[in-house]
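Sanity check record (used in CI):
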Amino acid sequence: MGSIFLKVLLVGVSFSGLLYPLVNFCISGKTAGQRPNIVIILADDMGWGDLGANWAETKDTANLDKMASEGMRKHKRDCYMDVALPLYENLCIVEQPVNLSSLAGKYAEKAVQFIQQASASRRPFLLYVALAHMHVPISATQPLPNPRGQRPYQAGLREMDNLVGQIKDKVDSTAKEHTFFWFTGDNGPWAQKCELAGSVGPFTGLWQTRQERAGSGEDVEGWRWMESHLMLARRHSWEEYNVAESGLLCELVMIPPFSAWDTVGPAYHLQCSITKPRRLWSQNPPGQQSRGTRTKEMVTKICGSSAKQTTWEGGHRVPALAYWPGRVPANVTSTALLSVLDIFPTVVALAGASLPQGRHFDGLDASNVLLGRSQMGHRVLFHPNSGAAGEYGALQAVRLEQYKAFFITGGAEACDGNIGPEQRHDLPLIFNLEEDAAEGVPLQTASAEYQAVLPQVRKVLTDILQDVANDNISQVDYTQDPAVTPCCNPYHIACRCQTV
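Expected output for Arylsulfatase G isoform X3:
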């Protein structure tokens, strides 16, 4: 979701971070030669830009980067009080409260032990490791060597990478030819955690995070004219951008971030000089003459986060790697549009089983993509609202091939505490992600491209909403079960007053 560092799009499934499971089971009666072993590792709040294979600025994921070179990358995918959180192994609590500083070691120890035992039995196995990394609180066991210093997030990222490396090494030494390995994440980084948040890479959601400024006595239309050229400059290059026919010479100058760890996306000054006589403003800029070279500055700044909790790419796009020597092509990047919803049907297919009948599954069997036989993924995906704007779970953002349409936008809380306002769009914002991965410049509503895409977007959205309505056939009644009845009690850890 080309040539602009894209991986797999994983629809934003948010996990609470309160339970830390390591789940495994063996499939009896079959040998490893008949059905593959499957290892799934799910990272929490890991940004797309946290994987070095995706983003050259990241240097903390040596093991994952090695896996990327040996397998397939999927192109289009605080301050805390101590709480007595439990550590689960399958359905058993093995430690409470969980000791976060030793958690990575426990993950690795149990996973390696299980792989050894299951491989010795020659029965195919499924190992699912739901990591606490990179969710806050971040507590690395011991700082690993790092020439750039020991910032908490980078230390935690290296610890997670080391953990995954231990699991992969065990697979390689025991069942390499018979094991499919899938690493991915649940959603983008939690930007409001500042230095404890990861990187969205190039998926900065510029339409959301930028903010125009026009001072008193200035022509707003002139500012918007300059803004349009700023966005064109951003689309094509971050270097000097010259609009020769207008006599406008513009240069982007980065504003220092709020902190050294600001990952939401940079802010920029646009410094423009008019090299030809032109009445750009209705009156001269203060202190400037009406003729000759004039310099004017426009500022864009953070307006909420476009990461976790939003439906912008930074909130939903995450790293994803597939590894199976001899089966998954090595050092390949897939451009197929996939989703975390595809994990279940894909694993079922690889295991040689069938999905239950009479049910509608939103995911697809992606095994042909992962094994290099096809680049055919989803044509359409839907992004549920996740807390930044609109009703939780409502479908108001649509992905249609390379296009993405927003019927509602909003920014989550950023590192500086800023929250972007909720805005509804009767005519949706539509971005061409192949040309504008940063989601900075929506298509003009009068353009032929917009007019061609809009009816398709409306149709697929209508179809999915109708399908959901028709599929609501569950007979389960939880209203009498106090364990699952919605509650609003600020003193109870399981209650969520704001969502009741």
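The first helix runs from residue 62 to 70. If this sentence no longer matches the regenerated tokens, the check is flagged for review.
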